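Workshop exercise sheet. Pairs work together: one partner reads the sequence aloud, the other fills in the structure field after running the prediction. Swap roles for the next sheet.
Pair: D.N. / O.F.
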Amino acid sequence: MAFKAAVVTVSDKGAAGEREDLSGVVVKDALAAAGIEVARREIIPDDLEDLTYMLHELCDSGLDLVVTTGGTGLSGRDVTPEATLAVIEKEVPGMSEAMRSESLKVTPHAMISRAVCGIKGSCLIVNLPGSPKGAKECLDVVMPALPHALEVLSGQASECAQG
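Structure field:
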């Protein structure tokens, strides 16, 4: 079974048409290369209420994965982690920790990332940084675990032990 995903770019300038959505393209292409169908792409302003609503809607629509890019920093408008935490039922901290750990090898700015990952129902939400380079690097970190995580959430796999 092919998994279906949405890519949500959280950017005031992107939503206003003042900046090209390069991060969303990078994420979409990486997911497609891994055999994950990107069924929806959205660009939304950094607004807590709108983003929370969209994440609920996407998770409830039958998608397996929602990947956000942007809004994970320290600015007053960065609200992606808060929206994600308002939606998820369980955190998946290992993914966020792994992304920060690997990113620290590239930049000290990784330690100010507030990205979170978690699940709502059978949908996994993964927050990525807003820069195309950072988004790709962080997605590459979690990609090896992503297929199995989606299999478990969809009920296709029940064991995590390897033979």
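Discussion prompt: The longest strand covers residues 37-44. What would you look at next?
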